[in-house]
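Reading a protein record of the kind used here takes only a little practice. The record below shows the convention in full:
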Amino acid sequence: MLPASHRLRRSDDFRRAVRSGRRAARRAVVLHVLVQTGQDGAAEPARVGFVVNKAVGNAVLRNRVHRRLRAVMASRLPELPPGSLTVVRALPSSATASYDELAADVDSALSRVLRP
């Protein structure tokens, strides 16, 4: 489970991460990560948000994908820089992907985005 302090909730934060952050696309997901520098970002924990739209499938499939992505990102929280904003957008192929495939896509995208 993703702790409440690590959840991205405000639409402004989603918008900033998607528009200003670095992006990496994989088969099942697209990751947007905005690393905030300065005093405002270092004191806050890394926060993660998810976008799973209707193109993924019906409500049952969307909820399953959302739960799996949430579990993957909960275990990757220590890897994220403090104060960073991360948006994980599920692509339609994520509906048929297994948990291991989603985890591999997220790991690959994270290593690409967080590379200096």
In short: The first strand starts at residue 22 and ends at 25. The first helix runs from residue 11 to 20. The chain has a mean pLDDT of 94.
